[in-house]
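REVIEWER CHECKLIST
Item 1: Sequence provided? yes
Item 2: Single chain? yes
Item 3: Sequence as submitted:
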Amino acid sequence: MKNIKIIIGVIIILAVFAYLGNSGFFNRQNYEIINESKGVIISAPETSVVVKNDVDELSDEAVTPYGQESCQNSTRRSIAVMLAIDAITRPLSGISEADIVFEMPVITDSITRLMAVFGCIIPTEIGSIRSARHDFIDLAKSVDAIFVHWGGSHFALDKLKTGAIDDLDALANPYGVFYRKNNLPAPHNGFTNGEKMLVAAEKLKYRVENNFKGFARMDCEKESSDSAKCQGAVDGTLKIGFPGEFRVEYQYDAASNLYLRWRGGKKEIDRNNKKQVTAKNVVVLYAQSKQIEGEYNDVVLEGKGKAEFYRNGEKIEGVWQKNASSAKLYFLDSSGAEIKFATGNIWVEILQTNQKAEWLK
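Item 4: Structure as written out by the authors:
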């Protein structure tokens, strides 16, 4: 009897291993796991997937806060991730799938940094992740996002200690959300996994329901004043006046009605899908800023200032307005009405007042 039980046990174990082998479990790419004081080195597949929640996919008619025609995760709170813009980190992973991206100088007249907001789709891999700056915290709050970063300036960390926003910091690395990759030198090799971030947020008891109501959108399907403006007729180039290798261009292609992003004279490519990054809308926002402590920038993002809006091949003059640290950032035309954006993603370029954008047809 004892021998029979042993034989049965061996058969069960062999069956389990056969199933796992056929499923491809042992063919998945795995990476070395190394504990470090500033994160964990693991990795994830370099492909992007839709991270679903319990909400069924919405119909094309559904209004989503992120500006897509349909969004499986419109009720889920978004994730705002700080990303490097250093040349060594190119191409960035996951950037093409952000719903909103904010870019602004972190040193006066010099280097910029990105904060990518992921709502509808959170890629399996996002990076290279960099440190927080205090200016970006209020922008993350304005879209009701969980703030993701790898450390930060003392101004940012002091603000985060007050509980200003729910955040995930790689220096603490809650639940192993962050990892480093061996093909890049530190500090440029920090990455995160989309699904792990959502799991960590729930375990930390962060609110996961979305309270962001989104921005006004054009209705190109109805017979209205919007429909005539929903497709550009002439190609053009939008030059964003960041200096040197940080200069940005958007080449507008009327046929696809997309703004193709270039940085430092090279195409902005997403490492995950090998595609050039595009935008449906580009906002140029002018804000006062000053250098503090010689290595940080202080950008004034409360009050009101000049703005330019680019959609469907047209330029619209207007203003931006934000009344409090947690309040929505409003985009208004010259009459004070909220700008209606084209369906799709938005890139927000925050320039100093001594910089400028040029729209060339």
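Item 5: Key structural point noted by reviewer: The two ends are 86 Å apart (CA to CA).
Item 6: Recommendation: ____
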